[in-house]
Amino acid sequence: MDTHSSHLTAPNRSRSSQSPSPSHSSATSSIHKRKLVSDDHAPPFPPSSLSADTRDGALTSNDDLESISARGGGADSDSDDDSDEEAPEAANAEDSDEDDSSIRTFTTARLDAANAGGGSGSARNTKIKTENLSSSVTVKIENSDGTKDGGALGTGPAGPTAQAGSSVPGIVVKEDATKIFTENIQTSGAYSAREESLKREEEAGRLKFVCLSNDGVDEHMVWLIGLKNIFARQLPNMPKEYIVRLVMDRSHKSVMVIRRNLVVGGITYRPYISQKFGEIAFCAITADEQVKGYGTRLMNHLKQHARDVDGLTHFLTYADNNAVGYFIKQGFTKEIHLEKDRWHGYIKDYDGGILMECKIDPKLPYTDLSTMIRRQRQAIDEKIRELSNCHIVYSGIDFQKKEAGIPKKIIKVEDIPGLREAGWTPDQWGHSRFRIVSASTDSATHQKHLTAFMRSLLKSLNDHVDAWPFKEPVDARDVPDYYDIIKDPMDLKTMSKRVESEQYYVTFEMFVADVKRMFFNARTYNSPETIYYKCSTRLESHFQSKVHSGLQSVNKIQQ
Ligand SMILES: CC(=O)SCCNC(=O)CCNC(=O)[C@H](O)C(C)(C)COP(=O)(O)OP(=O)(O)OC[C@H]1O[C@@H](n2cnc3c(N)ncnc32)[C@H](O)[C@@H]1OP(=O)(O)O
Q: Model pTM?
């Protein structure tokens, strides 16, 4: 078995610093070190049409690469610039204006080092794991011939089919209420929205996902060259020779996003059919189109194709540090659960990248996840409707206020729309601590007792020596910025009006909330050393003791 040293290039998938993802800072990865695996691939290039080394699927010189590029791109050949690899009309969306001299320098050094058995190249290039050069791992490669697009869904959506709007028995829902509810349903999250929009683009023929390997078909070759250019741009530390070799290698396949006959991005992977797993070699989206959902949809197409056409159950990849977040969102984990003997020795080894795994679900409709999610949402929603009334929205109450926030019109609790329907009965006066009324007493009696209790508490507050700062609303003429800071002012006089209206405080807790608000305001506006702050603390503790003793005596009366 001839294992070409040029296969030992230790690529680094670091992304281009010229095209940072909006949501992720760019960082330069260390140079990955790739171990050798035996390479009994099928020949990558048809000998008749491309002047390439076909011995073991490896290219041995830059001349070979240029000849491929020239053919695939149909452009002039220029050994020092990637522009030779652009197709005249349909290459890819990347421009190739980068200065790639550093990469070529790196590549040359790497190739030299590898040829010399991992000799003493400079910097990280010397770290190639050369021990594997001499290892003779025999890898059985099964040719992958499934090159058609992602298969049809093998299974139907997992979620139950949604029923048409069901009504809850026994409850009359106003039409407009139902409408409000329907409008409020959250039909999709950001993930589904992006997937659905790209799916619509596909259905309209404006976008397509293809899975190809080097088959000599002109259009396919142009796309593959376009994809290769995106990889070269987005993975700038990856030797271009290495990229073109793998993209053109017939044992690798590439799933590509094509829009208006231009490649937007893609994933090149190698299916190990006998081992039922695939290794993702490269994955990139052109700079202008990142973080728009293409990467996710691409991965979904890849999973669907790999499962339905290649029969794979897992993917492995050495993810660039910058891309770990993306892979995690695609279901990859850093924990490798795949039995080691299924993959060890098959995939190239990197130091610097993070080995990640993704289990391909046997049933999920990967290219139609948004429909599945929508149906599941609907099913859950139907279930909630069955079990609860919370979806019913009643029209609001007319609550106009006059002085001190007291309602203009008395609204009886039992008249609040929907309260009885929700199970409320007049004996349920909430969980107020002030429960002087028995279950049979009407609400008027309850309110009378409550008013008397609150009145006595207010009197006790007003009579206290520390009450003076709280007796009247703060005068903005005296304290100009008070109402800029205190947005919900409260004072004993306002509370007194509310108590005397016998309409405002329908529970004791509402009264206590106003008292607490008053003290909180004082301690918010004033610093601890001020008299106002101190008065509020002392008056509050007086109030608490009065409430405590008052409630105790109420309880005694009840017993
Ligand atoms: C094996 C390898 O090839 S490793 C190298 C991977 N490739 C690169 O780093 C090249 C540069 N980057 C890219 O080409 C692209 O950004 C890709 C391929 C990583 C992702 O493609 P995109 O089209 O941008 O992904 P997409 O828009 O579907 O985003 C999916 C989610 O991943 C997040 N994401 C995208 N890129 C990254 C990243 N580099 N790191 C962390 N999260 C990311 C997105 O914010 C989005 O999150 P959300 O669903 O919470 O909104």
A: 0.56
